[in-house]
Amino acid sequence: MESNQANPSILCSPEGSQRTLYPYVTGTSVVALKYKDGILMAADMGGSYGSTLRYKSVERMKPIGKHSLLGASGEISDFQELLKYLDELVLYDNMWDDGNSLGPKEIHNYLTRVMYNRRNKFNPLWNSLVLGGVKNGEKYLGMVSMIGVNFEDNHVATGFGNHLARPILRDEWREDLSFEEGVKLLEKCMRVLLYRDRSAVNKLQIAKITGEGITISQPYSLKTFWGFSAFQNPTAGAEGSW
Amino acid sequence: MTKQHANWSPYDNNGGSVVAIAGADYCVIAADTRMSTGYSILTRGYSKISKLADKAFMASSGFQADVKALQKHLTAKHLIYQHQHNKQMSCPAMAQLLSNTLYYKRFFPYYAFNVLGGLDTEGKGCVFTYDAVGSYERVGYSAQGSGSTLIMPFLDNQLKSPSPLLLPAVDAVTPLSEGEAIDLVKTVFASATERDIYTGDRLEIYVLNAHGTHHEYMELRKD
Q1: Residue A52 is a catalytic residue
Q2: With a threshold of 0.95, does the pTM exceed it?
Q3: N or C terminus: fewer CB in 10 A for chain B?
Q4: What's one GO BP annotation on this UniProt entry (chain B) (predicted)?
Protein backbone atom coordinates (compact mmCIF):
# COMPACT_ATOMS: atom_id res chain seq x y z
CA MET A 1 0.00 0.00 0.00
CA GLU A 2 2.95 2.36 -0.01
CA SER A 3 3.11 3.02 -3.74
CA ASN A 4 -0.42 4.33 -4.26
CA GLN A 5 0.38 7.84 -3.07
CA ALA A 6 1.06 10.37 -5.81
CA ASN A 7 4.70 11.01 -6.49
CA PRO A 8 4.96 14.76 -7.17
CA SER A 9 8.24 14.45 -9.09
CA ILE A 10 6.62 12.57 -11.97
CA LEU A 11 4.16 15.38 -12.44
CA CYS A 12 6.71 17.96 -13.50
CA SER A 13 9.61 16.23 -15.23
CA PRO A 14 8.88 15.81 -18.94
CA GLU A 15 12.35 14.40 -19.65
CA GLY A 16 13.17 10.94 -18.33
CA SER A 17 9.56 9.87 -18.07
CA GLN A 18 7.59 8.00 -20.71
CA ARG A 19 3.88 8.60 -20.33
CA THR A 20 0.96 9.07 -22.68
CA LEU A 21 -0.09 12.69 -22.22
CA TYR A 22 -1.99 12.73 -25.50
CA PRO A 23 -2.68 10.09 -28.13
CA TYR A 24 -0.95 9.69 -31.52
CA VAL A 25 -2.84 7.23 -33.72
CA THR A 26 -6.47 6.92 -32.71
CA GLY A 27 -9.55 4.97 -33.64
CA THR A 28 -13.02 6.46 -33.39
CA SER A 29 -16.34 5.08 -32.05
CA VAL A 30 -17.21 1.49 -31.21
CA VAL A 31 -20.92 0.62 -30.99
CA ALA A 32 -22.26 -2.59 -29.45
CA LEU A 33 -25.59 -4.08 -28.37
CA LYS A 34 -27.14 -7.18 -26.86
CA TYR A 35 -29.46 -9.15 -29.14
CA LYS A 36 -31.47 -12.38 -28.93
CA ASP A 37 -28.52 -14.78 -29.13
CA GLY A 38 -25.58 -12.71 -27.87
CA ILE A 39 -23.68 -9.53 -28.63
CA LEU A 40 -23.13 -7.57 -31.82
CA MET A 41 -20.36 -4.98 -32.12
CA ALA A 42 -19.36 -2.57 -34.88
CA ALA A 43 -16.26 -0.44 -35.48
CA ASP A 44 -14.75 1.19 -38.53
CA MET A 45 -11.14 0.55 -39.59
CA GLY A 46 -9.69 4.04 -39.65
CA GLY A 47 -6.57 5.03 -37.72
CA SER A 48 -6.21 8.81 -37.42
CA TYR A 49 -2.91 10.61 -36.89
CA GLY A 50 -4.36 13.78 -35.43
CA SER A 51 -6.79 14.83 -38.15
CA THR A 52 -4.91 12.91 -40.88
CA LEU A 53 -6.44 9.59 -41.87
CA ARG A 54 -3.14 7.66 -41.59
CA TYR A 55 -4.27 3.98 -41.53
CA LYS A 56 -7.29 2.44 -43.23
CA SER A 57 -7.21 -1.22 -42.21
CA VAL A 58 -6.92 -1.22 -38.44
CA GLU A 59 -8.74 -4.10 -36.73
CA ARG A 60 -10.25 -2.62 -33.58
CA MET A 61 -12.24 -5.65 -32.46
CA LYS A 62 -10.50 -8.81 -31.26
CA PRO A 63 -11.63 -12.08 -29.66
CA ILE A 64 -10.32 -12.64 -26.11
CA GLY A 65 -10.39 -16.32 -25.15
CA LYS A 66 -13.48 -18.28 -26.10
CA HIS A 67 -16.23 -16.17 -24.58
CA SER A 68 -15.28 -12.51 -25.03
CA LEU A 69 -14.95 -9.86 -27.67
CA LEU A 70 -13.02 -6.63 -27.10
CA GLY A 71 -13.50 -3.42 -29.08
CA ALA A 72 -11.39 -0.31 -28.58
CA SER A 73 -11.35 3.33 -29.50
CA GLY A 74 -8.51 5.72 -28.70
CA GLU A 75 -4.76 5.12 -29.00
CA ILE A 76 -4.19 2.10 -31.27
CA SER A 77 -0.75 1.25 -29.86
CA ASP A 78 -2.11 1.13 -26.31
CA PHE A 79 -4.86 -1.22 -27.51
CA GLN A 80 -2.31 -3.51 -29.14
CA GLU A 81 -0.23 -3.46 -25.93
CA LEU A 82 -3.35 -4.37 -23.95
CA LEU A 83 -3.99 -7.30 -26.31
CA LYS A 84 -0.54 -8.64 -25.40
CA TYR A 85 -1.48 -8.57 -21.66
CA LEU A 86 -4.75 -10.32 -22.42
CA ASP A 87 -3.12 -12.98 -24.62
CA GLU A 88 -0.74 -13.80 -21.79
CA LEU A 89 -3.59 -13.82 -19.24
CA VAL A 90 -5.67 -16.21 -21.33
CA LEU A 91 -2.64 -18.40 -22.12
CA TYR A 92 -1.66 -18.75 -18.45
CA ASP A 93 -5.27 -19.46 -17.50
CA ASN A 94 -5.44 -22.12 -20.21
CA MET A 95 -2.25 -23.80 -18.94
CA TRP A 96 -4.00 -24.81 -15.70
CA ASP A 97 -5.88 -27.25 -17.93
CA ASP A 98 -8.62 -27.51 -15.31
CA GLY A 99 -11.54 -27.03 -17.68
CA ASN A 100 -12.20 -23.51 -16.33
CA SER A 101 -11.91 -20.47 -18.55
CA LEU A 102 -12.13 -16.72 -18.15
CA GLY A 103 -15.54 -15.36 -19.09
CA PRO A 104 -16.51 -11.84 -20.18
CA LYS A 105 -17.22 -10.80 -16.57
CA GLU A 106 -13.67 -11.73 -15.52
CA ILE A 107 -12.06 -10.09 -18.56
CA HIS A 108 -14.09 -6.91 -18.02
CA ASN A 109 -13.06 -6.83 -14.38
CA TYR A 110 -9.41 -7.35 -15.36
CA LEU A 111 -9.59 -4.48 -17.86
CA THR A 112 -11.14 -2.29 -15.16
CA ARG A 113 -8.24 -3.01 -12.80
CA VAL A 114 -5.59 -2.44 -15.50
CA MET A 115 -7.10 0.89 -16.60
CA TYR A 116 -7.59 2.14 -13.02
CA ASN A 117 -4.12 0.99 -11.97
CA ARG A 118 -2.52 2.82 -14.89
CA ARG A 119 -4.43 6.02 -14.09
CA ASN A 120 -3.20 5.75 -10.46
CA LYS A 121 0.34 5.77 -11.86
CA PHE A 122 -0.52 8.82 -13.98
CA ASN A 123 0.34 6.68 -17.00
CA PRO A 124 -2.99 5.88 -18.63
CA LEU A 125 -3.82 3.56 -21.50
CA TRP A 126 -5.54 6.07 -23.79
CA ASN A 127 -8.60 4.01 -24.71
CA SER A 128 -12.31 3.54 -24.26
CA LEU A 129 -12.94 -0.18 -24.25
CA VAL A 130 -16.08 -2.16 -24.98
CA LEU A 131 -16.27 -5.74 -23.80
CA GLY A 132 -19.00 -8.13 -24.94
CA GLY A 133 -19.41 -11.83 -24.41
CA VAL A 134 -21.55 -14.85 -23.73
CA LYS A 135 -20.78 -17.59 -21.21
CA ASN A 136 -23.11 -20.30 -19.90
CA GLY A 137 -25.95 -18.69 -21.85
CA GLU A 138 -25.40 -15.38 -20.04
CA LYS A 139 -24.95 -12.26 -22.17
CA TYR A 140 -22.54 -9.58 -20.98
CA LEU A 141 -21.83 -6.10 -22.32
CA GLY A 142 -19.73 -3.50 -20.56
CA MET A 143 -17.46 -0.49 -21.00
CA VAL A 144 -14.27 0.80 -19.39
CA SER A 145 -12.81 4.28 -19.82
CA MET A 146 -9.24 5.59 -19.76
CA ILE A 147 -9.45 6.43 -16.02
CA GLY A 148 -11.25 3.28 -14.94
CA VAL A 149 -14.90 4.36 -15.03
CA ASN A 150 -16.86 1.21 -15.88
CA PHE A 151 -20.43 -0.04 -16.25
CA GLU A 152 -22.69 -2.58 -17.94
CA ASP A 153 -25.66 -1.82 -20.18
CA ASN A 154 -27.84 -3.35 -22.89
CA HIS A 155 -26.16 -1.15 -25.50
CA VAL A 156 -22.96 0.92 -25.33
CA ALA A 157 -20.98 3.24 -27.59
CA THR A 158 -17.68 5.07 -27.19
CA GLY A 159 -16.77 8.65 -28.07
CA PHE A 160 -18.99 10.24 -30.71
CA GLY A 161 -21.08 7.08 -30.62
CA ASN A 162 -22.33 8.01 -27.16
CA HIS A 163 -23.67 11.27 -28.60
CA LEU A 164 -24.99 10.09 -31.98
CA ALA A 165 -25.62 6.33 -31.80
CA ARG A 166 -26.98 5.79 -28.30
CA PRO A 167 -30.07 7.99 -28.74
CA ILE A 168 -30.97 5.79 -31.74
CA LEU A 169 -30.28 2.65 -29.71
CA ARG A 170 -32.45 3.89 -26.81
CA ASP A 171 -35.27 4.42 -29.28
CA GLU A 172 -35.04 1.17 -31.19
CA TRP A 173 -33.26 -1.41 -29.03
CA ARG A 174 -35.20 -4.46 -27.80
CA GLU A 175 -34.06 -7.48 -25.79
CA ASP A 176 -35.36 -9.92 -28.48
CA LEU A 177 -33.70 -8.26 -31.49
CA SER A 178 -32.90 -10.85 -34.21
CA PHE A 179 -29.44 -11.03 -35.80
CA GLU A 180 -30.68 -9.31 -38.98
CA GLU A 181 -32.44 -6.56 -37.01
CA GLY A 182 -29.34 -6.09 -34.82
CA VAL A 183 -27.03 -5.70 -37.80
CA LYS A 184 -29.50 -3.30 -39.43
CA LEU A 185 -29.61 -1.19 -36.26
CA LEU A 186 -25.81 -1.11 -35.96
CA GLU A 187 -25.50 -0.13 -39.61
CA LYS A 188 -27.98 2.69 -39.05
CA CYS A 189 -25.78 3.94 -36.18
CA MET A 190 -22.56 3.57 -38.18
CA ARG A 191 -24.10 5.45 -41.11
CA VAL A 192 -25.03 8.41 -38.88
CA LEU A 193 -21.48 8.37 -37.48
CA LEU A 194 -20.06 8.20 -41.00
CA TYR A 195 -21.99 11.33 -41.99
CA ARG A 196 -21.28 13.38 -38.87
CA ASP A 197 -18.00 12.12 -37.34
CA ARG A 198 -15.18 13.47 -39.51
CA SER A 199 -12.74 10.76 -38.40
CA ALA A 200 -15.09 7.90 -39.29
CA VAL A 201 -14.34 6.02 -42.52
CA ASN A 202 -16.57 3.93 -44.77
CA LYS A 203 -14.84 0.64 -44.11
CA LEU A 204 -16.11 -1.27 -41.14
CA GLN A 205 -16.46 -4.66 -39.53
CA ILE A 206 -19.28 -6.14 -37.52
CA ALA A 207 -18.47 -8.78 -34.93
CA LYS A 208 -20.84 -11.33 -33.44
CA ILE A 209 -20.44 -13.40 -30.29
CA THR A 210 -22.93 -16.10 -29.24
CA GLY A 211 -22.79 -19.35 -27.30
CA GLU A 212 -21.59 -20.95 -30.54
CA GLY A 213 -18.50 -18.76 -30.93
CA ILE A 214 -17.04 -15.54 -32.27
CA THR A 215 -17.18 -14.29 -35.86
CA ILE A 216 -15.77 -11.01 -37.12
CA SER A 217 -16.97 -9.99 -40.58
CA GLN A 218 -14.77 -9.11 -43.53
CA PRO A 219 -14.41 -5.33 -44.01
CA TYR A 220 -17.25 -3.80 -46.00
CA SER A 221 -18.78 -0.41 -46.85
CA LEU A 222 -22.15 1.17 -46.19
CA LYS A 223 -24.28 2.65 -48.96
CA THR A 224 -24.38 6.42 -48.58
CA PHE A 225 -26.19 9.24 -50.33
CA TRP A 226 -24.42 12.56 -50.72
CA GLY A 227 -26.88 14.03 -53.25
CA PHE A 228 -28.71 16.33 -50.80
CA SER A 229 -28.74 19.86 -52.18
CA ALA A 230 -27.26 21.21 -48.93
CA PHE A 231 -24.30 18.84 -49.38
CA GLN A 232 -23.81 19.70 -53.07
CA ASN A 233 -24.12 23.46 -52.74
CA PRO A 234 -23.39 24.31 -49.13
CA THR A 235 -23.00 28.07 -49.75
CA ALA A 236 -26.42 28.61 -51.35
CA GLY A 237 -27.99 31.61 -49.68
CA ALA A 238 -24.78 32.49 -47.85
CA GLU A 239 -22.46 33.64 -50.61
CA GLY A 240 -19.26 35.52 -49.86
CA SER A 241 -18.48 39.01 -51.16
CA TRP A 242 -16.15 37.72 -53.88
CA MET B 1 3.92 25.42 -31.00
CA THR B 2 1.10 26.08 -28.61
CA LYS B 3 -0.67 23.35 -26.73
CA GLN B 4 -3.66 22.03 -28.67
CA HIS B 5 -4.85 19.17 -26.56
CA ALA B 6 -6.69 19.27 -23.25
CA ASN B 7 -4.58 18.25 -20.30
CA TRP B 8 -5.28 14.75 -19.00
CA SER B 9 -6.92 14.50 -15.61
CA PRO B 10 -7.01 11.43 -13.37
CA TYR B 11 -10.40 12.56 -12.06
CA ASP B 12 -13.91 12.87 -13.46
CA ASN B 13 -17.19 13.80 -11.84
CA ASN B 14 -19.82 11.23 -12.70
CA GLY B 15 -22.55 13.13 -10.83
CA GLY B 16 -25.56 11.85 -8.92
CA SER B 17 -27.21 12.66 -5.61
CA VAL B 18 -27.37 10.64 -2.41
CA VAL B 19 -29.55 11.16 0.69
CA ALA B 20 -29.91 9.42 4.05
CA ILE B 21 -32.40 10.07 6.86
CA ALA B 22 -32.24 8.58 10.35
CA GLY B 23 -35.33 8.03 12.49
CA ALA B 24 -35.78 6.67 16.01
CA ASP B 25 -36.04 3.06 14.79
CA TYR B 26 -35.31 3.19 11.05
CA CYS B 27 -32.94 4.59 8.44
CA VAL B 28 -33.63 5.51 4.81
CA ILE B 29 -30.75 5.54 2.31
CA ALA B 30 -31.45 6.73 -1.22
CA ALA B 31 -29.62 7.60 -4.45
CA ASP B 32 -30.49 8.14 -8.11
CA THR B 33 -29.13 5.70 -10.71
CA ARG B 34 -27.86 8.10 -13.39
CA MET B 35 -24.16 8.11 -14.26
CA SER B 36 -22.83 10.98 -16.39
CA THR B 37 -19.63 12.44 -17.74
CA GLY B 38 -19.65 16.07 -18.83
CA TYR B 39 -22.95 16.71 -20.59
CA SER B 40 -23.33 13.03 -21.60
CA ILE B 41 -25.18 10.26 -19.81
CA LEU B 42 -23.15 7.04 -19.62
CA THR B 43 -25.88 4.82 -18.21
CA ARG B 44 -29.31 5.19 -16.58
CA GLY B 45 -29.18 2.19 -14.26
CA TYR B 46 -26.04 2.39 -12.11
CA SER B 47 -26.47 1.70 -8.38
CA LYS B 48 -24.62 4.14 -6.11
CA ILE B 49 -25.57 2.28 -2.91
CA SER B 50 -23.34 -0.41 -1.50
CA LYS B 51 -24.14 -2.78 1.36
CA LEU B 52 -21.03 -2.81 3.53
CA ALA B 53 -22.55 -4.72 6.48
CA ASP B 54 -26.01 -5.95 7.54
CA LYS B 55 -26.69 -2.60 9.21
CA ALA B 56 -24.41 -0.22 7.28
CA PHE B 57 -25.17 1.02 3.75
CA MET B 58 -22.97 3.51 1.91
CA ALA B 59 -24.30 5.78 -0.83
CA SER B 60 -21.60 7.51 -2.87
CA SER B 61 -21.32 10.08 -5.65
CA GLY B 62 -18.26 11.63 -7.27
CA PHE B 63 -15.72 9.73 -9.40
CA GLN B 64 -17.13 6.28 -10.11
CA ALA B 65 -13.75 4.50 -10.44
CA ASP B 66 -12.63 5.81 -7.05
CA VAL B 67 -16.00 4.92 -5.50
CA LYS B 68 -15.66 1.37 -6.84
CA ALA B 69 -12.14 1.08 -5.41
CA LEU B 70 -13.36 2.41 -2.06
CA GLN B 71 -16.29 -0.01 -1.93
CA LYS B 72 -14.04 -2.94 -2.81
CA HIS B 73 -11.54 -1.94 -0.11
CA LEU B 74 -14.19 -1.58 2.60
CA THR B 75 -15.89 -4.85 1.64
CA ALA B 76 -12.53 -6.65 1.88
CA LYS B 77 -11.84 -5.03 5.28
CA HIS B 78 -15.27 -6.09 6.49
CA LEU B 79 -14.65 -9.68 5.41
CA ILE B 80 -11.46 -9.73 7.50
CA TYR B 81 -13.40 -8.22 10.41
CA GLN B 82 -15.99 -10.99 10.18
CA HIS B 83 -13.29 -13.66 10.21
CA GLN B 84 -11.58 -12.11 13.22
CA HIS B 85 -14.65 -11.24 15.33
CA ASN B 86 -17.33 -13.57 14.02
CA LYS B 87 -19.90 -10.77 13.75
CA GLN B 88 -21.04 -7.96 11.48
CA MET B 89 -19.39 -4.58 11.91
CA SER B 90 -21.62 -1.94 13.56
CA CYS B 91 -22.54 1.18 11.64
CA PRO B 92 -20.53 3.56 13.90
CA ALA B 93 -17.46 1.28 13.55
CA MET B 94 -17.84 1.24 9.77
CA ALA B 95 -18.15 5.04 9.90
CA GLN B 96 -14.74 5.35 11.60
CA LEU B 97 -13.23 2.86 9.15
CA LEU B 98 -14.54 4.85 6.20
CA SER B 99 -13.07 8.06 7.63
CA ASN B 100 -9.65 6.44 8.15
CA THR B 101 -9.73 4.91 4.67
CA LEU B 102 -10.47 8.29 3.07
CA TYR B 103 -7.81 10.09 5.09
CA TYR B 104 -5.22 7.44 4.21
CA LYS B 105 -5.36 8.88 0.70
CA ARG B 106 -5.28 12.50 1.89
CA PHE B 107 -2.67 13.54 -0.70
CA PHE B 108 -4.19 11.69 -3.68
CA PRO B 109 -7.79 11.56 -2.50
CA TYR B 110 -10.64 9.30 -3.46
CA TYR B 111 -12.94 11.79 -5.20
CA ALA B 112 -15.96 10.29 -3.42
CA PHE B 113 -18.74 11.99 -1.48
CA ASN B 114 -20.42 9.56 0.85
CA VAL B 115 -23.26 9.22 3.28
CA LEU B 116 -23.29 6.14 5.46
CA GLY B 117 -26.67 5.08 6.82
CA GLY B 118 -27.70 2.26 9.07
CA LEU B 119 -28.76 1.26 12.55
CA ASP B 120 -26.54 1.56 15.60
CA THR B 121 -26.14 -1.14 18.26
CA GLU B 122 -29.35 0.03 19.99
CA GLY B 123 -31.30 -0.21 16.75
CA LYS B 124 -31.53 3.57 16.41
CA GLY B 125 -31.18 5.09 12.94
CA CYS B 126 -27.79 6.66 12.23
CA VAL B 127 -26.41 8.75 9.39
CA PHE B 128 -22.77 9.75 8.93
CA THR B 129 -21.78 12.36 6.37
CA TYR B 130 -18.28 12.82 4.88
CA ASP B 131 -16.07 14.96 2.72
CA ALA B 132 -13.61 13.44 0.23
CA VAL B 133 -10.68 13.35 2.68
CA GLY B 134 -12.44 11.78 5.64
CA SER B 135 -13.90 14.53 7.86
CA TYR B 136 -17.11 13.08 9.22
CA GLU B 137 -19.97 13.78 11.58
CA ARG B 138 -22.98 11.87 12.89
CA VAL B 139 -26.16 13.70 11.87
CA GLY B 140 -29.90 13.10 11.64
CA TYR B 141 -30.04 13.45 7.86
CA SER B 142 -27.72 14.40 5.02
CA ALA B 143 -27.44 14.90 1.26
CA GLN B 144 -24.29 14.67 -0.88
CA GLY B 145 -23.43 14.91 -4.56
CA SER B 146 -24.45 17.08 -7.49
CA GLY B 147 -27.98 17.78 -6.22
CA SER B 148 -27.01 18.34 -2.59
CA THR B 149 -27.20 22.15 -2.93
CA LEU B 150 -30.87 21.78 -3.89
CA ILE B 151 -31.78 18.99 -1.46
CA MET B 152 -29.96 19.94 1.77
CA PRO B 153 -31.68 23.29 2.46
CA PHE B 154 -35.06 21.70 1.83
CA LEU B 155 -34.32 18.93 4.33
CA ASP B 156 -33.15 21.59 6.82
CA ASN B 157 -36.42 23.41 6.37
CA GLN B 158 -38.61 20.32 6.74
CA LEU B 159 -36.78 18.43 9.46
CA LYS B 160 -35.69 21.32 11.74
CA SER B 161 -32.88 19.38 13.33
CA PRO B 162 -31.86 20.69 16.79
CA SER B 163 -28.58 22.65 16.79
CA PRO B 164 -25.51 20.50 17.43
CA LEU B 165 -24.31 23.33 19.74
CA LEU B 166 -27.07 22.73 22.31
CA LEU B 167 -26.00 21.68 25.79
CA PRO B 168 -26.89 19.12 26.92
CA ALA B 169 -26.81 17.52 23.44
CA VAL B 170 -30.18 16.85 21.84
CA ASP B 171 -30.66 13.73 19.73
CA ALA B 172 -30.50 14.54 16.01
CA VAL B 173 -32.82 11.80 14.72
CA THR B 174 -35.79 13.09 12.77
CA PRO B 175 -39.30 13.14 14.26
CA LEU B 176 -40.89 11.73 11.09
CA SER B 177 -42.41 8.27 10.82
CA GLU B 178 -40.78 5.79 8.44
CA GLY B 179 -43.48 6.28 5.80
CA GLU B 180 -43.19 10.08 6.00
CA ALA B 181 -39.40 9.88 5.62
CA ILE B 182 -39.70 7.70 2.49
CA ASP B 183 -42.21 10.13 0.98
CA LEU B 184 -39.89 13.06 1.80
CA VAL B 185 -36.97 11.32 0.06
CA LYS B 186 -39.12 10.71 -3.04
CA THR B 187 -40.15 14.37 -3.04
CA VAL B 188 -36.62 15.78 -2.74
CA PHE B 189 -35.33 13.58 -5.56
CA ALA B 190 -38.25 14.44 -7.85
CA SER B 191 -37.49 18.12 -7.12
CA ALA B 192 -33.71 17.87 -7.57
CA THR B 193 -34.26 16.06 -10.88
CA GLU B 194 -36.12 19.11 -12.19
CA ARG B 195 -33.08 21.40 -11.91
CA ASP B 196 -29.96 19.21 -11.61
CA ILE B 197 -28.98 17.66 -14.95
CA TYR B 198 -26.82 15.04 -13.21
CA THR B 199 -29.72 13.65 -11.15
CA GLY B 200 -32.49 11.55 -12.68
CA ASP B 201 -33.61 8.34 -14.42
CA ARG B 202 -34.45 6.23 -11.36
CA LEU B 203 -34.39 6.47 -7.57
CA GLU B 204 -33.13 3.56 -5.51
CA ILE B 205 -34.23 3.42 -1.85
CA TYR B 206 -33.12 1.17 1.00
CA VAL B 207 -35.07 1.18 4.28
CA LEU B 208 -33.54 -0.43 7.37
CA ASN B 209 -35.56 -1.19 10.51
CA ALA B 210 -35.99 -3.86 13.22
CA HIS B 211 -37.65 -6.17 10.68
CA GLY B 212 -34.70 -6.07 8.29
CA THR B 213 -34.00 -4.37 4.96
CA HIS B 214 -36.51 -3.20 2.37
CA HIS B 215 -35.52 -2.20 -1.17
CA GLU B 216 -37.56 -0.22 -3.72
CA TYR B 217 -37.31 1.92 -6.84
CA MET B 218 -39.13 5.00 -8.09
CA GLU B 219 -38.97 6.33 -11.65
CA LEU B 220 -37.55 9.83 -12.15
CA ARG B 221 -37.47 12.15 -15.18
CA LYS B 222 -35.15 10.84 -17.87
CA ASP B 223 -34.36 14.17 -19.63
Answers
A1: no
A2: no
A3: N
A4: proteolysis involved in protein catabolic process
